[in-house]
Amino acid sequence: MRRITNIIFKIILCILTGVTLAALAFVIIFIVKEALPTFNDVSVHEFLFTNEWMPVEGIGSGARFGIFNFIAATVYVSFLAMLIAIVIGIGAALYLSCVATDRIRGIMYPFVDLLAGIPSVVYGFIGLTVIVRLFLKVGVHTGVCVLAAAILLAIMLLPYLISSCSETLLKNKEAYLRAGNALGVDAWYTISTVILPASWKNILTAMILAIGRAMGETMAVMMVIGNANLFPTLLGKSESIAAVIALEMGTAVNGSTHFHALYAAGLVLIVLLFIINVGINMIRNKLL
Amino acid sequence: METIMNTESIGTEEYVARSAGTEAAMRVRELSVSYDNKETLHKITTEFPKHCITSIIGPSGCGKTTMLLSLNDLIREIQGVKVEGEILLGDKRTDAIPQEELRRRVGLVFQTPMPFPFSVYKNLTYAPRYYGNHNKKDLDRIVKEKLALVGLYDEIKTDLNKSALKFSGGQQQRICIARALTVEPDILLLDEPCSALDVRSISVIEETLLRLKSQYTIIIVTHNIAQARRLSDKVIFLKDGRLIEEGDAAGLFREPKEAETREFLRGIYG
Lengths: 288, 270
Description:
The complex is a heterodimer. Chain A is an all-alpha fold. Chain A has helices at 2-35, 38-41, 44-49, 68-99, 102-117, 120-137, 146-182, 187-216, 219-224, 241-248, 257-287; strands at residues 53-54, 64-65.
């Protein structure tokens, strides 16, 4: 009887795994299928490496589909946000894991988790009313810019980074801080020379998850980045791939090159994410 | 095993011979420790003779580890702890000794081997570097000397750059003992150092401790009565945070004075 139950359990698990893989495969196949017709009208090189995006034919000029600026903006904003978030996130995680008492940790963790659950449109609204206004006050024209988007995105990434980093730091602190203390070594010396280096592998994993979140984030970024097809500069407007898809999908004529080009942009986003994940994983495995 | 049995009797004789005018490496007077107002140790007064192995035994939760952690002040790292009474290292109160110096002089090895996630060489040079020794020749000497002291040098001399985490549990524990010795402590505290190890590793660690006692005062917390018998010169029996009985190992194991000690040794509780 137990053997039969085990077999049934195994079959159920296999089916569930299969469903997950099938869903993923379906999404990828669907996007590839919808994206490929783009390249009947536009070459891959032109699509990836030119920066003119004119989905509607103008007087004397045909439609153009070059997403280089969008790719650059997506990577720029994501990495800038990651840079800001990782510094603050590791600092906060160090505080929570190595300084804060159990009581403070108990109070802080639910707040951090709560931050992760706030809808991105709310973050976007806060970005518009606080960060953009602040930039306006310091003289940035219209207030919306890449830096504003990166700051907002960094705030959104913080809960993920803080909770996963503090978890690994806490685990390593429990393993090594007492050993350092027993040798008479100062706690901060042990933290900086043992605990932090021992946690890098998991911190990089947290970064992979966070970068995925950052590159795919649409609403909040769209609300503060300015949405202009310009090469990204710190205080200038730009537009991310996710924002372009969200803004134009509703107006693209079904089956048109524009429609397929938006799917192709989505495919590029997936490939970019895959390349970055593989890259960080390789660094993680080689360096650590 | 033969070696251990022989050394055991020598150890006991040594303790008896010295016990008349024994110089104590550490003394504890009226030591009480409580966590969040719950008393774990109650007015313990005892001493730890120099160059002897003192075992602290007792049932689970009796305060053995608390007592050990109090000796090098690691107890204060625990939130909500209150320590009363005095602990003397030589003639000096430990609370008058800078914490860094106290922990350097009173080394501690934990129950679970905790090598840092670096090479053996880096593990053993970690504390000397912290204390300002960056001389390569000197560091090489320390690594060789301390690994030899724990009987590990010949075993792993070609693997000094290998991660300490890749060695067996017994080897990791000996690396940790060697690491504790790199800061030249006077006293070595061991908190159930063999509880996670196999029989062969336990035997090697016990041999190591018996070898080390000529140079260091060793205080060990153990659940293993047979191990306490094999190793100890002096035994302290704690129950419910109180010191029930103490004395030279041979005497205490042969003829315990207190009924509670007798019951514990007969395995009625533990």
